[in-house]
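Both lines are given unchanged directly below:

***
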Amino acid sequence: RAKLVDVQLQIRELENDPTATGRRDIISGLEGRLAQKTKTLITTIEKLQGRIGTLSKHVSHASEVIRVLRKETQQATLMSSMEIGGKKSEELKKRLSKVQKKRMTLASTIALSEQSAEGANKDIPQDLDSGSEYSDSENSDSGDGASLRDGGAFTAELKRAEKENI
């Protein structure tokens, strides 16, 4: 606050100075300081522009590196997924082939069981086939297409298929 009051006093003295010499000295001193500050400012701006140019080049280079890395990462991910997919595809084909073979074996076993059941049913008189003298467990179809009179071939084949994880 004291400095402000001091500056204000100097300004009043200059305003009251009858000679213009004092004013010219102050003005030329201010102009000299202003010119020096302007040169310093211009030099600082030029340095900053150079640094900005250098930083811009670094940013551009970093952006290019990032773009290349992203592309390589995408390609690596794609290759990895293709390898995994290929392995899975081959593995699934093998499993499908095994399952199809097991299904065909099971289907032929069921067909044989049905044939033997039909043969067994021919030996049974029609009036006894109705189940009047037999319990349901002895004379009914188990729902799997095989009769209980097939001699256990279907059951054995079914157990074998379960062991192979169909």
Remarks:
- The two ends are 97 Å apart (CA to CA).
- The chain has one domain: 1-117.
- Confidence is low (pLDDT under 50) at residues 123-149.
